[in-house]
Specification:
This protein is of the alpha/beta class and 373 residues long. It contains eleven helices and 21 strands. 26% of the residues lie in helices and 25% in strands.
Length: 373
């Protein structure tokens, strides 16, 4: 019987990654233990490690990682069914929603924005104290937060690992209410951008334009059904990109919807300029404080009559809808995993994603930590 498990401890901003072995916790009532198959390396984690100011609580030293898929190792009465009523047994593959809300505070009950729960906690953000196994860069995850939501799936782990990111994309599309027949621009061809493309198509967008790079990511956008690709390495001037986007819209007036998913502040005013009058803009790429950018309230907001919204995190309902999209198997989602890395190479993934996106001679599209490789 296994009694211990390894975890990767992130020591601090730009700090080292240490592998430690801790005893597996005693199973308390209402908990479960899962054997982690994959944990995606999220850009937010990389930003926090790189020294960007956190906009959600993060503790160092800590066990990061929240895009988690794995196999139920042991369980008790708290984990007999998943969120949609599927029975769960040891050996089943599950994906936990990392954020757990209290359900009773002002933001949960009154403001109806539970992603800003005053007492919320999240796997991958709980520090390095007991019970230790609370983040995804590890061999095991202890599902110990009361109210944790899990989803059972038979998808391969290379696809199921994208359930948390696609739930973020569902949240973003919800915010801008894409209607059938609309033209949608996605800024950014990283994981969130590509998944926003997928969800926008599922919501009924008739024309999708992706502005991003590098080429390997744009090629995936093409496979996911993007109608127009604009490579920022080939078209470096923002004014040229604005003209190119507008030329692809009805009447040249601009897009109905823009979703910004780059995490680069300078893309925001550019994205607003992609919009037609009365268009809708969703900021979905800044989960760390990367700095400020100048927006002219007159020309960017009032004169354009736009709706400007921000998307933040996700909830069980967006997980459920995201899972339906993944399980449709309409898109080659698994091809996004460009690098499977053992625990010992977690630092390599973080360094690549905070520099030139190159690792082992290949562009990183998605790095995932595979603790048993």
């Amino acid at each position: 019987m296994v009694t211990k498990g390894r975890v990767v401890v992130t020591m601090g901003p730009r700090g080292a990654f240490e592998i430690r072995e801790h005893p597996l916790p005693e199973m308390e009532p209402g908990t479960a233990l899962m054997r982690i198959e994959l944990c995606g390396v999220c850009g937010t984690d990389v930003h926090y490690w790189a020294g960007y100011k956190p906009t959600i609580p993060i503790t160092f030293p800590g066990i990061m990682g929240h895009e988690i898929v794995g196999i139920v190792e042991s369980q008790n009465e708290g984990y007999l069914m998943d969120a949609v009523g599927k029975p769960i047994r040891p050996g089943d593959r599950i994906v936990p929603a990392p954020l757990v809300t209290c359900g009773t505070c002002f933001f949960c009950q009154i403001a109806k924005e539970p992603v800003k729960c005053l007492h919320g906690k999240a796997y991958g953000h709980l520090g390095d104290g007991y019970p230790y196994h609370t983040g995804g860069y590890a061999e095991y995850l202890y599902l110990c937060l009361p109210g944790t939501t899990v989803f059972k799936t038979d998808l391969p782990p290379e696809v199921a690992v994208f359930l948390e990111p696609i739930s973020i994309a569902v949240t973003a599309v919800d915010k801008v209410r894409i209607n059938p027949g609309e033209t949608v621009v996605v800024q950014g061809s990283g994981n969130i951008g590509l998944l926003c493309l997928v969800v926008a198509k599922e919501a009924g967008a008739s024309k999708t334009i992706v502005v991003g790079g590098p080429k390997a990511r744009l090629e995936l956008a093409r496979k996911f059904g993007a109608d127009v690709l604009i490579d920022i390495a080939e078209m470096r001037n923002p004014a040229e990109r604005i003209e190119a986007v507008r030329a692809q819209t009805p009447g040249g007036y601009g897009a109905d919807v823009v979703i910004e998913a780059t995490g680069v502040p300078a893309t925001v005013p550019e994205g607003i300029d992609f919009l037609r009058y009365g268009g809708r803009f969703c900021e979905a790429g800044h989960f760390a404080d990367a700095g400020t950018v100048a927006i002219n309230p007159s020309t960017h907001l009032c004169a354009k009559c736009i709706t400007l919204v921000g998307a933040w995190s996700s909830l069980p309902d967006t997980f459920a809808r995201g899972l339906n999209i993944l399980e449709s198997r309409k898109y080659p989602i698994g091809e996004m995993v460009s690098h499977r890395l053992p625990l010992e190479r977690t630092a390599d993934a973080f360094r690549a994603l905070s520099s030139n996106y190159m690792l082992d001679g290949r562009e990183v599209i998605k790095a995932a930590i595979a603790p048993w490789d």
